[in-house]
Design goal:
The chain is α+β, with helices and mostly antiparallel strands and about 280 residues long. It has helices at about 1-30, 220-230, 250-270, and strands at about 55, 60-65, 70-75, 80-90, 100-110, 125, 130-140, 155-165, 175-185.
Length: about 280
């Protein structure tokens, strides 16, 4: 009888472990940061700001999702850089769709303020026969500092959100794949505007509160640090100030060269026409 009870308890324990394993895998899948084939490129996207998948500048991320889902990525941008985000959505098979679909690409800064696009197709509509749709958004130049009332892009994390905004109701839930690339172009660092601001990289995961007399667990703190680092945009190679170069150097050199040429030309035009001493009397 005791042997039967022991076997029953072991069976119940194994069933509980098997039941919790798929849940853990499902929680980790939306925010994975490495490809399942061993590559460094992310193959999943987050479902919100707090679970956005971190990508690097110039890195291409892919994801598979269902039509109607909100997909999120996060990348870093330093002062003096002009970020450009591009997305390619590979639509479901034409025979499974029922009409036109409209997709939208939005970019938010570290304060979750929606940033305006200066160029690119932020919203695109695909017909039922189209196999894919391309979207892009180029932001304004990231400033090293800004006034409190302004909505200027500032150095830090930038969130990408991709979703469909208009479609036939029958098409909800169809599977699709997408590719996301975030690149930047340097046009002058922090020295271009004579200021510097700490990067806007807020914590993407909130910590749980504990009782005042509770002791922190080493394992929990390490896992929380690893979890948070996997969803935080890495610092750019040139730092958040984007190096020492500034386009003011070019205008200073050009202005100095033009001033020197003007001085030489003026001397050449006026030489020999100055005051002459009259001849001495005999």
């Amino acid at each position: 009888m005791r042997a039967l009870r022991t076997a029953g308890a072991a069976f119940a324990l194994c069933a509980a472990l098997l039941a919790t394993a798929p849940v853990a895998a499902a929680d980790a899948s939306p925010s994975a940061t490495a490809g399942t084939d061993g590559s460094d490129e992310p193959t999943e996207a987050g479902t919100g700001f707090r679970t956005a998948t971190a990508i690097e500048q110039g890195q291409t991320a892919t994801a598979s999702a269902s039509v109607g889902d909100y997909l999120y990525w996060v990348f870093p941008a330093a002062a003096g850089q002009v970020p450009t985000v591009k997305a390619t959505v590979k639509l479901p098979e034409a025979q499974t769709r029922h009409g036109r679909t409209t997709w939208q690409l939005d970019v938010y800064d570290g304060l979750r303020r929606r940033q305006a696009c200066t160029s690119g197709s932020q919203t695109a509509t695909a017909t039922q026969q189209d196999a894919s749709v391309d979207l892009s958004c180029r932001l304004r130049r990231v400033r090293p500092w800004s006034e409190a009332w302004a909505n200027d892009p500032l150095p830090g994390s930038y969130y990408i959100r991709l979703t469909v905004v208009n479609l036939p109701e029958q098409d909800l839930g169809l599977s699709f794949t997408t590719e996301i690339t975030a690149s930047t172009r340097d046009v002058g660092g922090k020295h271009a505007e004579g200021g510097e601001l700490s990067p806007l990289t807020p914590a993407v995961r909130a910590g749980a509160t504990q009782a005042p007399d509770a002791e922190p667990s080493p394992d929990a703190s390490e896992s929380s640090a690893e979890d948070a680092s996997s969803h935080t945009a890495a610092e750019p190679n040139g730092g958040w100030g984007s190096g020492w170069w500034s386009d003011r150097w070019v205008w200073t050199v050009v202005g100095g060269a033009l001033g020197a040429l003007a001085g030489v030309g003026g001397y050449a035009l006026t030489r020999g026409r100055g005051f002459r001493r009259p001849p001495a009397a005999e």
